[in-house]
Specification:
The protein is α/β, with parallel strands linked by helices. It is built from three helices and eight strands. A hairpin with a 2-residue loop joins strand 6 and strand 7.
Length: 126
C-alpha cells in the first residue's frame, strides 16, 4: 500500500499561513513547533500539511510550483463564503482545464483549487 501521508511547503510567516488555512479552509492544527517555525495542519482525510517558515519573514520564502487542491462540500457555497470574507479568487467557480471548480492564492502565492464531487460530475465533464 502507498498513501500520501504529509506534504511540506515553505512559507514567509507560518502563523499567518496557519491562520489562513485554519480560518478559510477548516484545517486543524495537529501540532506546532514554534522554535522551528513549523506547524502541522490536518485535513478531514488525515493528510498533514506542514507549513515551514523559511527566510526572515520579510523577503519571500522560496516556493516551488505546488498546486494544492481541496475537496469541499459545495464549491459554489465555499466560494461565496470566502469571497464575502474578502478573499480574492484567480478563477471564480467555472469549468477549468481540470474540471469544475475555483482557484485562489494563499498568503504566499501558492495556487489553491477548490472542487466538490457533485459539481465536478455535473459541470466539469470528463
Amino acid at each position: 500500500m502507498v498513501k500520501l501521508d504529509h506534504l511540506a511547503i515553505t512559507v514567509r510567516d507560518y502563523r499567518t499561513s496557519r491562520d489562513w488555512y485554519v480560518g478559510n479552509l477548516g484545517l486543524r492544527v495537529e501540532f506546532e513547533v514554534a522554535d522551528r517555525r513549523t506547524v502541522a495542519l490536518q485535513d478531514d482525510g488525515g493528510l498533514t500539511l506542514f507549513l515551514v517558515e523559511e527566510g526572515d519573514g520579510v523577503r519571500p520564502a522560496p516556493t516551488g510550483s505546488v498546486f494544492l487542491t481541496f475537496q469541499v462540500a459545495d464549491v459554489d457555497a465555499k466560494y461565496g463564503e470566502l469571497a464575502a470574507g474578502g478573499i480574492a479568487f484567480t478563477y471564480v467557480p467555472q469549468k477549468l482545464f481540470w474540471g469544475y471548480g475555483a482557484e485562489l492564492l494563499d498568503p504566499d502565492g501558492y495556487r489553491i483549487g477548490l472542487w466538490d464531487e457533485t459539481s465536478m460530475r455535473e459541470e466539469g465533464g470528463s
